[in-house]
């Protein structure tokens, strides 16, 4: 039987033998292992190709100075595992509690070697199907109408072995160094090879090209031994606490900003690197000039024949010669292995280092080819955390759910609740969910309303970029309206030039919740599923089209949205206004009286009391309700008269009037209040 199964997995195309799998994954980094885990849990046929002898080979070399900038918070004061993932930026998702990163390191910023060890354990303990020492060097297409996507993917490795799959998941990351070519660029050392021993820079003057975390990491390592360090880049420095983007400069690496602003010789400059030129003098010193000074001149003739900027401007900023120039410009995606038939094209502008993909993480050029992990960051570049483990572990799970529905008929996971649980369900998720919290403005919880709003279906962490395709992508129906729950920062609070520490920066009153600056939940209500055209025409910087109604839950200093008056009550009233119903909870006595005095009961009474469900009464509970003014204490009341007590008539009339429930003449008998 084993031989027969093996033979069935082999295909022959034009005389070449191809080993077939439903899913091929390129790369055994964090994203590759994460999708492998989900495929294995679903019992799918897959294989992961890894060019190195172990998973996570990128982390075996980078970052060069070995300190990660992804936080590893040991304590949060909470035992909720989902909440704790909000502050664990290194763990991958799995059912195995041993595979939480806090069991591997107690450092707030862990060592990269620990990440390598963690990924090795993740692959081995979960028995993931990874084929090591296999470098895929060519990928092309084979048209076939019987294939899932109308074609198969044909892969070839370094040993000329061939593989065939129906769906290709690219999780190879970004590992090709960004290089800028200009006259004299041959004198530049790369971040990937430069020495990390500070003593090698003692007494030297250094110029660093770039202004990201790798550039500042390099500067931080040699700050105390150099004469001075200059740093030049096309754009101004972007601080992560101002932009709220974790890929911008982190505080752990920004020591050079201190020495620059406090005038301790180091400095930052802005300029287009392609306009620069480097000239080496006889002593081996490197001089910075501009490219146009070298036009029609022979650079090999020596520095004496070349005009330098300081010859015309004697206080030119970089007039002092440098001992070393280091390139720290990040990485880009490797497009070289993909045949033109796949139409894997680079993006445009500031995302040209990434392949072009849709908001569903599927390639724009080829159906069935999905990009995962860091290389998928074009969807939310400089907006959210999709380029980092604590973000793409959730987008990878979303891609797997899309594939399960498309190829295997497994709808997006959902839970159906009675409408009375709507407020509680939202409050629970915004206080616990890690995917919503990390992938703010990208992943959203979707609430699909059932007919007559008697129940709802809850879908977690769906990519809002493909909201218009929700029914097709999830296998769920949205006929009666929907709520979309996402997390957002204030519209004008994030930016490289923003002062995020200004006085009165926080909002505390519920009535001003729409002005909240810090991360907070936002609920969009749509009577109908937005169309593709509405998604394209949404206002600038809006994650979604204009809704029929919108509600901001006011920001909270503790990110704890459970305050009854500030958070829960405004949310409940918003939901009630959208649904034209009453979402409060009532005691059985109130439901009993409503049943005799009103034509329509609140949903809580319909779905609870009338079905013989609800809270079992006790003397302690009744005493608490009386003390809180929720029930009348009949044990000390004189009923000798014809008319029952009416001390609560006014409040009950107001309760009924607020929700427009028709009242019969017996309303003076009703004696219920809000729970």
Automatic annotation (TrEMBL):
InterPro entries: Auxin_biosynth/cation_transpt, FAD/NAD-bd_sf
The keyword Oxidoreductase is annotated on this UniProt entry: yes
One GO-annotated biological process of the protein: ERAD pathway
Keywords: Endoplasmic reticulum, FAD, Flavoprotein, Glycoprotein, Oxidoreductase, Signal
Subunit and interaction comment: Interacts with SEL1L. May interact with OS9 and DNAJC10. Interacts with TXNDC16.
Function recorded in the entry: Probable flavoprotein which may function in endoplasmic reticulum associated degradation (ERAD). May bind non-native proteins in the endoplasmic reticulum and target them to the ubiquitination machinery for subsequent degradation.
Stated name of the protein: FAD-dependent oxidoreductase domain-containing protein 2
Organism (species): Machaerirhynchus nigripectus
């Amino acid at each position: 039987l084993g031989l027969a199964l093996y033979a069935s997995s082999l295909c022959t195309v034009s005389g070449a033998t191809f080993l077939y799998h439903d899913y091929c994954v390129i790369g055994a980094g964090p994203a590759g292992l994460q999708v492998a885990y989900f495929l294995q849990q679903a019992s799918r046929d897959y294989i992961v190709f890894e060019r190195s002898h172990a998973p996570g080979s990128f982390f075996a070399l980078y970052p060069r100075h070995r300190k990660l900038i992804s936080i590893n918070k040991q304590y949060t004061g909470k035992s909720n595992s989902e909440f704790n993932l909000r502050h664990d930026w290194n763990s991958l998702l799995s059912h195995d509690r041993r595979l939480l990163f806090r069991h591997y390191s107690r450092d707030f910023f862990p060592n990269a070697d620990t990440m390598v060890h963690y990924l090795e354990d993740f692959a081995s303990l979960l028995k993931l199907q990874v084929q090591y020492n296999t470098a895929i060097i060519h990928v092309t297409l084979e048209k076939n109408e019987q294939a899932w996507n109308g074609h198969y993917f044909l892969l070839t490795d370094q040993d000329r072995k061939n593989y065939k799959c129906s769906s290709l998941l690219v999780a190879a990351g970004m590992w090709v160094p960004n290089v800028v070519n200009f006259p004299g660029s041959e004198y530049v050392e790369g971040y990937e090879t430069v020495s990390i021993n500070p003593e090698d820079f003692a007494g030297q003057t250094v110029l660093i090209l770039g202004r990201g975390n790798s550039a500042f990491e390099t500067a931080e390592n040699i700050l105390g031994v150099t004469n001075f360090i200059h740093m030049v880049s096309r754009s101004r420095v972007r601080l992560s606490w101002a932009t709220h983007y974790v890929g911008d400069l982190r505080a752990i690496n920004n020591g050079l900003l201190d020495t620059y602003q406090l005038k301790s010789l180091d400095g930052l400059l802005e300029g287009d690197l392609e306009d620069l030129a480097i000239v080496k003098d006889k002593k081996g010193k490197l001089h910075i000039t501009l490219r146009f000074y070298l036009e029609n001149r022979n650079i090999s003739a020596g520095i004496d024949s070349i005009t330098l900027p300081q010859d015309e401007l004697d206080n030119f900023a970089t007039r002092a010669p440098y001992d070393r120039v280091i390139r720290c410009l990040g990485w880009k995606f490797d497009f070289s292995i993909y045949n033109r038939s796949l139409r894997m094209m680079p993006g445009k502008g500031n995302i040209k280092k990434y392949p072009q993909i849709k908001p569903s993480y599927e390639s724009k050029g080829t159906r069935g080819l999905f990009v995962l992990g860091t290389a998928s960051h074009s969807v939310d570049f400089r907006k959210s955390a999709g380029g980092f483990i604590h973000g793409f572990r959730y987008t990878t799970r979303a891609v797997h759910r899309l594939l399960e529905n498309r190829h295997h008929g497994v709808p997006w996971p959902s839970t159906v609740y009675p409408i009375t649980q709507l407020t509680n369900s939202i409050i629970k998720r915004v206080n616990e969910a890690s995917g919503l919290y990390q992938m703010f403005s990208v992943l959203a919880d979707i609430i699909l309303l059932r007919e007559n709003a008697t129940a709802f279906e809850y879908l977690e962490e769906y990519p809002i970029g493909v909201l218009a395709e929700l029914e097709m992508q999830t296998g769920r129906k949205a006929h009666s309206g929907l709520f979309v729950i996402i997390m957002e920062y204030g519209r004008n609070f994030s930016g490289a030039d923003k002062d995020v520490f200004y006085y009165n920066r926080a909002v505390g009153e519920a009535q001003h919740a729409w002005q909240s600056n810090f991360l907070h939940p936002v609920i969009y209500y749509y009577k109908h599923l937005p169309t593709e055209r509405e998604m394209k025409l949404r206002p600038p910087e809006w994650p979604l089209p204009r809704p029929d109604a919108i509600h901001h839950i006011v920001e909270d200093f503790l990110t704890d949205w459970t305050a009854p008056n500030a958070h829960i009550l405004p949310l409940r009233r918003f939901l009630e206004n959208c649904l034209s119903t009453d979402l409060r909870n009532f005691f059985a006595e109130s439901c009993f009286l409503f049943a005799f005095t009103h034509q329509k009961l609140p949903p809580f009474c319909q779905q609870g009391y009338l079905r013989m469900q609800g809270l079992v009464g006790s003397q302690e509970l009744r005493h608490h309700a009386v003390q809180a003014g929720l029930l009348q204490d009949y044990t000390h009341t004189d009923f000798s008269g014809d008319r029952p007590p009416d001390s609560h008539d006014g409040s009950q009339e107001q309760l009924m009037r607020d929700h427009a429930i028709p009242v019969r003449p017996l309303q003076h008998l009703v004696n219920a209040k809000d729970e």
